[in-house]
Write a structure and sequence with these properties.
By secondary structure, the protein is mainly alpha-helical. It has 13 helices and no strands.
Length: 296
């Protein structure tokens, strides 16, 4: 692996290239926040795809693409004299130090009138402070749960932080991920099931209510109850420390693989899918499952 100096040199070379492209490339010259945004979303999803595949080569590549967009937005802001990449890094550093008192300032945890935490500027090393503070941090904060609870409380106290516990959940998040984040943030302030097994009563209750509305063929109420049921299932997944988005994506990929097997067989035998019986497709589905089990 590279030294810190080598990492800084590599980042500097990257920023030099970005500056040159912005000045000399016709495409890069004309980019704006608005024009880059759709590509940023695409690059983020490509990174997520590489992460769920655990493709190390693609993870590295896609991280670079996302980093390009981050620095590009900072470059555009710099040209408008709004802020630059150093401001982005300084603001992030300040926020991380402030939100990790158990590492940097253990004496401030649970203080009635906490003192303002000093900010370490970009040209100052913080490694020695980190090493010293971390030796004593476990006396006040010892678990991930405690860290998260403290994190949420600090965010609410920040001048430009969240105005409410749930205001930090982006509106544009996909619904499944948003539901998980909403529940997780509520948990961080103590709003959660005392016994995770109690959630199954809620799941069954919501499923029963959904079935009642479906039998009535009431589409509007069925849609509402379906949402309640899905929310309860996501809640159950969270309580058992399972990521529902990852789980659903794994199932998506599994379904695609098995369905592609059926389709490939139909092409091989010259029989279109629409002409196959459900029994024939089920048999091929089971073959695909068996092949997965055998690692074929």
């Amino acid at each position: 692996m590279h030294t810190k100096e080598e990492k800084m040199q590599a980042f500097g070379r990257f920023l030099d290239v970005l500056d040159a492209l912005r000045a000399n490339c016709p495409w890069d010259k004309k980019q704006t926040n608005e024009s880059l945004r759709p590509n940023t979303i695409e690059e983020t999803y490509e990174l997520c795809d590489a992460l769920i595949k655990n493709d190390i080569h693609d993870i590295c590549k896609e991280l670079g693409d996302v980093l390009l967009h981050i620095c590009f937005y900072a470059k555009i802001a710099e040209e408008k004299e709004q802020f630059d990449m150093a401001d982005v890094c300084d603001a992030l550093t300040k926020k991380m130090i402030t939100r990790h008192p158990h590492v940097y300032h253990p004496s401030q945890i649970n203080a009635v009138d906490p003192k303002p935490l000093p900010f370490v500027p970009s040209d100052t090393s913080i490694s020695s402070n980190t090493s010293q503070s971390s030796k004593t941090s476990t006396t006040s904060v010892t678990t991930v749960s405690q860290v998260l609870e403290n994190w949420e409380q600090i965010k609410l106290k920040e001048k430009d932080g969240n105005k409410s516990v749930l205001s930090g959940v982006p509106e544009a998040l996909p619904s499944l991920i948003k539901a998980y984040r909403i529940q997780d943030k509520a948990r961080n302030v103590g709003f959660d099931w005392e016994d995770r097994q109690d959630v199954w009563k809620k799941v069954r209750e919501e499923l029963d209510e959904l079935e009642v509305e479906l039998n009535k063929e009431d589409k509007e109420n069925s849609t509402k109850e379906l949402g309640d049921f899905l929310f309860s299932v996501i809640n159950a997944a969270r309580l058992y420390k399972l990521n529902p988005d990852n789980a659903l994506e794994m199932t998506n990929r599994k379904f695609i693989g098995r369905f592609n097997y059926i389709e490939a067989h139909s092409i091989k035998v010259g029989k279109p899918l629409k002409d196959m019986t459900l029994g024939e497709m089920d048999a091929l589905w089971e073959e695909a499952k068996e092949n997965e089990r055998l690692g074929k």
